[in-house]
């Protein structure tokens, strides 16, 4: 799992250093307070070095969206264990539970918060909208694969993998939005219900043979 | 339902005129592009009249959050018909389906988009976070009431109204986030599954006696 930890180790190059600096500046100043000066300061680079990498703020933010989504894909990537019940629980747990603690790793709330702030830009920005649509689909396909494996192995009910997967991604998007924008812990209130939904909808034999 | 239509009729006073102007400016320039000059221009007011009403941008944005949440509460308020099955379907339909068309009414995507942009500010702003937590709870309580009525009347299964309600609000928050930030129509992909969830979880007799 260490490979899946975001921000671990030294940044590979100054592009990555700028991306991490943007993440820190976003945490500190919010989206509206992001400026090239602040990002250059965080990255300990001159503005001219910055402009060697990016044309300007818009160019930077498109790259940063790419960076955050890549981190997201890395965090929420489930390696198939051959046991679809385990895999689907791992997937849900990656969204709902805490990252394993790790030096240099921002806590999950910081990553989810940045994700929500970037995602809200998609309301106005068609490039962002296109990218988030693709990423949602990528996550949905990952779940479809797990569900298809489960049906094939005879451990999941014969559901429509597409619709169950979309429904689950919607639930997880709701949890992410709430977690990043509420002052209580909304996960605690829905965790059991999500587990029950999976047990009742997908997993064969939970109520009969277990 | 006309009472529930946002932005219908003339604004009651210049406070409301400024709120509507903020809404239009937000649609046009995005959250990062909101400025007092632009809002004053949209409202056809001088900046000095603006400052008669608000101390500054932060003060305005807190009022605007209040305004958007009031509109939200007005739109998503279900008058009990005495038939809980009908009421819960009305509630879901208010989130998932289109507003009835009405002169001066922005389309639902515009309202949901503004909601998501404001909600993303809560990542950074504790005042916003507190307010959105309250509003989520307000919606949840509305659903709890409908579910309790249904159980009492013997038409809903004996579920835990709190957990089912939280789960449904999470699903609807997920739909709202996706609808406002994707370039396809995510509601179409989950509508049937949400209806099925309600039928299977709540409504007694759907599969046996109907």
From TrEMBL, chains A, B:
Keyword set, alphabetical order: DNA-binding, Repressor, Transcription, Transcription regulation
Segments of the chain annotated as binding DNA: 35-54
Entry-linked Pfam families: TetR_C_6 (PF13977), TetR_N (PF00440)
Superkingdom, natural source: Archaea
InterPro entries in the cross-refs: BetI_C (IPR039538), Homeodomain-like_sf (IPR009057), HTH_TetR (IPR001647), Tet_transcr_reg_TetR-rel_C_sf (IPR036271)
Molecular function GO labels: DNA binding
Domain HTH tetR-type: 12-72
Family annotation (PANTHER family): HTH-TYPE TRANSCRIPTIONAL REGULATOR YJDC, TRANSCRIPTIONAL REGULATORY PROTEIN
Protein name per the record: TetR/AcrR family transcriptional regulator
Source species: Haloarcula hispanica
């Amino acid at each position: 799992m260490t490979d899946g930890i975001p921000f671990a180790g030294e940044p590979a190059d100054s592009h990555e250093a700028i991306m991490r600096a943007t993440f820190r500046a976003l945490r500190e100043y919010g989206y509206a307070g992001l400026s090239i000066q602040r990002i250059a300061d965080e990255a300990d680079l001159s503005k001219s070095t910055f402009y060697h990498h990016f044309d300007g703020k818009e160019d930077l933010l498109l790259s940063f969206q790419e960076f955050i989504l890549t981190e997201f894909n890395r965090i929420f990537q489930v390696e198939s264990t051959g046991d679809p019940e385990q895999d689907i629980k791992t997937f849900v747990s990656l969204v709902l539970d805490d990252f394993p603690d790790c030096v240099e790793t921002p806590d999950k709330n910081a990553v989810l918060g940045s994700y929500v702030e970037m995602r809200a830009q998609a309301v106005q920005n068609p490039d962002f909208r296109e990218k988030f649509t693709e990423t949602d689909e990528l996550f949905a396909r990952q779940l479809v694969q797990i569900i298809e494996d489960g049906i094939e192995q005879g451990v999941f009910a014969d559901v429509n993998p597409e619709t169950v997967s979309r429904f689950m991604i919607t639930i997880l998007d709701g949890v992410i939005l709430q977690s990043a924008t509420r002052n209580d812990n909304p996960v605690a209130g829905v965790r059991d219900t999500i587990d029950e939904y999976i047990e009742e909808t997908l997993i064969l034999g939970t109520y009969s043979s277990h």
